[in-house]
Design goal:
Elements lengths: L1 H7 L4 E3 L8 E6 L4 E6 L5 H10 L12 H11 L11 E8 L9 H9 L6 E5 L4 E7 L7 H15 L4 E4 L3 E2 L4 H18 L5 E3 H11 L6 H4 L1 H9 L2 H11 L4 H8 L3 H15 L6 H15 L1
Parallel strand pairs: 7-9
Antiparallel strand pairs: 1-3, 2-3, 4-6, 4-7, 4-8, 5-6
Helix pairs in contact: 6-7, 7-13, 9-13, 10-13, 11-12
InterPro entries: CdaR-like_regulators, PucR_C-HTH_dom, PucR_C-HTH_sf
Protein name: PucR C-terminal helix-turn-helix domain-containing protein
Organism: Lederbergia galactosidilytica
Length: 297
């Protein structure tokens, strides 16, 4: 049957597993135990309805929350009471899985992810696509580097893309819900501005979050002088941003930008001379970084 579909849709692709590309409608041939992905642009609504009826993918597993996870779900997203916890401090690890396949095995993914932690964690799914992991503060918590390596394995095993936002440990008190809501906003900002990032933190999100919280009408006034300088030399935006992100390490920046170190240093010095802003200092670099974000907005 797949061969016949390929004749009708020559732009289609096949495989043993469907991928996460949202531009394709995936169908499964149960007899051949293989998949075909047809570009959605090549299908009418009636064709999609007919094909998905004839070749349905397995239904997603229904989300079932454990009793304690349900209490946290009601507290965080609704008006439930704060759940009892023996831990004094916890942190939220927010997760989102975009472009999920219809046959994604959520429960298996949850168990695999739980095994990454040295202590018990509470999985609180909000949907198949996103939720939060609640971690008690252990003697040794998982590092960003360890989580990064684990993400590669999980993405390979489950054919998905995962984004995490690592929160920080905080006492369980009346402010914990506000912290959760703030971290959700930081996650949304990170996903919008850095969709390539797999692990996000408040430190990474704050520059974009700070810029977006500036009054919109004040932004062009605040960055007017730098705006004109960067407008005259668009390549300078990437140069300055990379230099600041590398903590003014000229050697590393030059290597990443495939530039000679002396050429980079000349461009940095000319920028400082023109603007009067020393981007080698904290305040100068932070302000200039926001100006670069303004140019990219």
């Amino acid at each position: 049957m797949i061969k016949k579909l390929l004749q009708l849709y020559p732009d289609a692709i096949t495989g043993l597993k469907p991928n996460t590309d949202p531009q394709y409608t995936w169908l499964k041939d149960e007899i051949e135990d293989s998949y075909i992905g047809i570009p959605k642009a090549k299908l009418t609504k009636d064709e999609i309805t007919l094909l998905t009826t004839l070749f349905p993918l397995k239904q997603r597993q229904k989300i079932v929350r454990a009793p304690l996870a349900e209490e946290w779900y009601q507290f965080l997203l609704h008006n439930g009471k704060i759940p009892y916890s023996k831990a004094s401090d916890i942190r939220f690890i927010h997760f989102t899985i975009p472009n999920m396949r219809d046959d994604f095995q959520y429960k298996e993914w949850e168990e695999a992810t739980k095994s990454l932690f040295s202590n018990e964690v509470i999985f609180v799914p909000f949907s198949h696509h996103h939720g939060v992991i609640i971690e008690d503060q252990p003697n040794l918590c998982i590092s960003e580097e360890e989580l990064s390596s684990a993400i590669e394995a999980l993405e390979s095993d489950f054919f998905i893309k995962i984004h995490f936002h690592l929160g920080f440990f905080q006492p369980i008190n009346n402010q914990i819900k506000q912290l959760f809501q703030l971290e959700q906003r930081l996650l949304a900002v990170s996903l919008s501005n850095h969709p390539e990032e797999r692990i996000m933190t408040r430190e990474k999100a704050i520059p974009n979050y700070s810029y977006l919280n500036l009054p919109e009408q004040e932004r062009p006034i605040l960055f007017a002088d730098i705006h004109q300088i960067l407008l005259d030399d668009p390549d300078l935006i990437r140069t300055i941003k990379t230099y600041i992100e590398n903590q003014a390490n000229a050697t590393l920046t030059a290597k990443q930008l495939f530039m000679h170190r002396n050429s980079l240093q000349y461009r940095i010095d000319k920028f400082i001379e023109k603007t009067g802003i020393d981007i080698k200092t904290f305040h100068g670099s932070f302000f200039t970084y926001l100006a670069c974000l303004h140019m990219e907005a």
